[in-house]
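User: Hey, my collaborator sent me this sequence without any context and asked if I could get a structure. I don't really work with proteins. Can you help?
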Amino acid sequence: MTQFQAAPHPEYVERASSRVRVYTPSVVLEGSHHHPHGVRLSDSLRNQVQGEKYMLLTDVDIIANDGTRSTANFVLINSQHASVIIPLEE
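Assistant: No problem. I've predicted the 3D structure and written it out in structure-token form, which is a compact way to encode the shape of the chain:
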């Protein structure tokens, strides 16, 4: 009898992380955007905004229009509210 061995995490996709700055009407967010490994950041961001309703950032610095600063472990942004997205590294 052969032994069947399942993949350890079949739903897991290796991801890369890149820091980005996202401008919205009310805040500026700087955080890590996670995208599939081997996919260019610019392609991932374009697909994110065109095809996804929300964009997830982790380890986020939040700067309000009045200069108030705060942080968050993660932020979920409605992609339609992202006016400008600037890669801080690639």
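In plain terms: The first helix runs from residue 41 to 51. You can pass these tokens on to your collaborator as they are.
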